[in-house]
Amino acid sequence: MSTTFDKNPAGNRANNLREWAQKNHNVLADMNSRIADVKNTPTEKVIKTIYTLLQKKVQNTLQEERHWLQITVPDPDFNKINAYIGCSKCGNRTDIPAGQPYKCNACSKDCVSCPRYKGISS
Question: 20 to 30 Å CA-CA from 84: which of 10, 24, 74, 113?
């Protein structure tokens, strides 16, 4: 079984879609630029506030988006904080010294070993 794509379909639905796309060219361009921005994220992390995340709406949020929050934990229990060196992509533990590039066995991506931590809250 094979799949074929008709690049120039006929019919009312196809014509309506073409008309909509011509009228809303700026909407489509905006969506494509947001997708490109998410896929080509900058290497530096931009710390956001919870307020900015609450302002986001479903229609302007992409599944691939990542957000970084800076929080302060009052009176942390240091016995429940576990620090380790891990993959910069998936966070899996590694024995590679921090700052060294390597290929992660868990996610199979080229990454850099970096300090990570895991905190258990109650």
Answer: 74
